[in-house]
Write a structure and sequence with these properties.
10 helices, 209 residues, three-stranded mixed β-sheet, 5% strand, mainly alpha, globular, Nonspecific Lipid-transfer Protein, Chain A, 2 domains
């Protein structure tokens, strides 16, 4: 199974779980900033529905700020019914779009992390195959600036306790692969699920105060 097939599999799995969510679950707060579960699903649908030229125009309209454009486009898509977004995610799961300058690992990380943004607060589980977890973690640990909080991972060693993965040197931060995915992308809510002498340093960096 190549990376794009893995991405499609994760999109379909998330769409299947999302199709059973109640209205209350759909409007619940996700782990992603101030976004609801509905908003996160809209964000995942964005690259499947919004062409690159349209996204470029949105960035220009946002003064060249991608994050602002991303939020605006997501807000527009989130006006669609939740069930419609679920259908789009499933129907277009095989899309091979990648962000300019990035490989397929970027959308793999996107669907895995945002899938957890939805599942974690709702208490849902997804047994993600080990190879794709390892690919996502390796990509994040060596990712260009912007995908992880600046300086958050420097000088720490991350070790998964459920799959064969370790990266970096220094005080150890240990946890399941999925928890490491969330922690490395700045989701402070999972810090209590980590162990190791490097956890206090990581906590200061991603959840100060």
């Amino acid at each position: 199974m190549d990376v794009f097939e893995e991405i499609a599999d994760e999109r379909r799995a998330l769409a299947e779980q999302a199709s059973h969510l109640t209205p209350q679950q759909q409007s619940a707060r996700s782990l992603c900033r101030a976004w609801s579960v509905h908003d996160v699903l809209a964000h995942l649908v964005m690259p499947l529905e919004v062409s690159t030229p349209r996204l470029v125009l949105a960035v220009l309209a946002a003064g060249g700020k991608f994050d602002r454009a991303n939020e605006r486009v997501t807000q527009r898509l989130a006006q669609r019914p939740f069930a419609e977004l679920v259908q789009v995610l499933a129907r277009k799961a095989g899309s091979r779009f990648t962000p300019p300058g990035a490989g397929p690992e970027a959308p793999l990380v996107d669907v895995l992390v945002h899938g957890l943004d939805i599942r974690w607060p709702l208490g849902l589980h997804r047994a993600v195959p080990e190879p794709r977890l390892r690919k996502a973690l390796t990509f994040l640990m060596t990712a260009p600036a912007g995908l992880v909080p600046e300086g958050a991972l420097t000088g720490l060693r991350f070790e998964a306790d459920d799959i064969d993965f370790a990266h970096g040197s220094g005080p150890v931060v240990s946890g399941t692969a999925q928890v490491l995915l969330l922690a490395s992308t700045g989701r402070g809510v999972v810090l209590d699920s980590l162990t190791g002498e490097g956890v206090p340093t990581l906590r200061r960096r991603i959840a100060p105060g």
